[in-house]
Write a structure and sequence with these properties.
Distance between the termini: 39 Å
Order of helices and strands: EEEHEEHEHHHHHEHEEHH
Shape: globular
CATH topology: Rossmann fold
Bound molecules: adenosine-5'-triphosphate, magnesium ion
CATH superfamily: P-loop containing nucleotide triphosphate hydrolases
Helix content: 40-55%
Structural class: alpha/beta
Number of helices: 10
CATH architecture: 3-Layer(aba) Sandwich
Oligomer: single chain
Largest sheet: 5 strands, parallel
Number of domains: 1
Length: 234
């Protein structure tokens, strides 16, 4: 058994042809912990999330997610770990434009038997999708059958959150969109996301450039405190 949901050590990453962007000696997200990671625009937050999610490959170091050493796995094995255990809310949401709201939310269950069987225990994927959407304030029947391109940005964020939460993944990763929602609805959104994560015991890693959100989390970390590469460049 491991008590860490994410453990990063001696991580180094540079985009092709660019200087070192991330140089992180050690970073840990504990099981069930809700952590806020802040840093200015361009500091590498989305890149770090991409590395933890196994979408990107580091040049050096280890990234452990649950009991999986992501840095030792092939791309397809990393994809499966992500499908089974991670709920990711991307900065640009990455919703599938031609699918309805509900079809978008059930998508992770189509890529993971584990998440499908979890959803089945809650009455099936579609019912679980609708329950999560309602929890996040989207229960209008007309809205649920629309394609996602017909939704506002705030509504799309909720769809992306429901899609991340379905099937009880152990880790929820959220990359805050820069296109600001109003402060009240954003705080409410984070509280709902936190509550849903708490219910299933999932850890939450939330990144944003807006340091004011820190009080909504168990712990806050500055990427610049973690990142030696950033410090040298400063
Ligand atoms: N696909 C890519 N190819 C090359 N360079 C990239 C790519 N994505 C990001 N970068 C560069 O990496 C650096 C960090 O970008 P990243 O998107 O991780 O920042 P961020 O902290 O998430 O910023 P924001 O708050 O604006 O979302 C930037 O200098 C950016 O130009
Ligand atoms: Mg980003």
């Amino acid at each position: 058994m491991t008590t860490s949901t994410v453990r990063v050590s001696d991580l180094q990453f540079a985009w092709p042809g660019q200087p070192l962007l991330l140089d992180i000696k050690s970073f840990e997200l504990k099981a069930g912990e809700r952590l806020f990671l802040r840093g200015p625009s361009g500091s590498g937050k989305s890149t770090l999330l991409g590395l933890i999610a196994g979408v990107l490959e580091a040049q050096a170091g280890q990234i452990q997610v649950l009991e999986h050493q992501m840095t030792d796995l092939s791309g397809s094995r990393r994809d499966q770990v992500r499908a089974d255990h991670l709920g990711v809310i991307f900065q640009m949401f990455n919703l599938v434009p031609y699918l309805s709201v509900v079809q978008n939310v059930v998508l992770p269950c189509r890529f993971s038997k584990r998440r499908m069987s979890e959803a089945k225990q809650n009455g099936g994927a579609e019912q679980e999708a609708k329950r999560l959407l309602a929890r996040l304030g989207l229960d209008d029947q007309d809205l649920l059958s629309r394609t996602v391109t017909e939704l506002s940005v705030g509504q799309q964020q909720r769809v992306a959150a429901a899609r991340a939460l379905i099937g009880n993944p152990a880790l929820i990763i959220a990359d805050e969109p820069t296109s600001a929602l109003d402060a009240d609805s954003r705080d409410r959104f984070i509280q709902l996301l936190s509550e849903e994560a708490r219910k299933t015991g999932a850890a939450l890693l939330f990144v944003s450039h807006d340091g004011g959100l820190a009080p909504l989390f168990d712990r806050a970390v500055d990427l610049s405190d973690l990142n030696l590469a950033g410090r040298r460049a400063a």
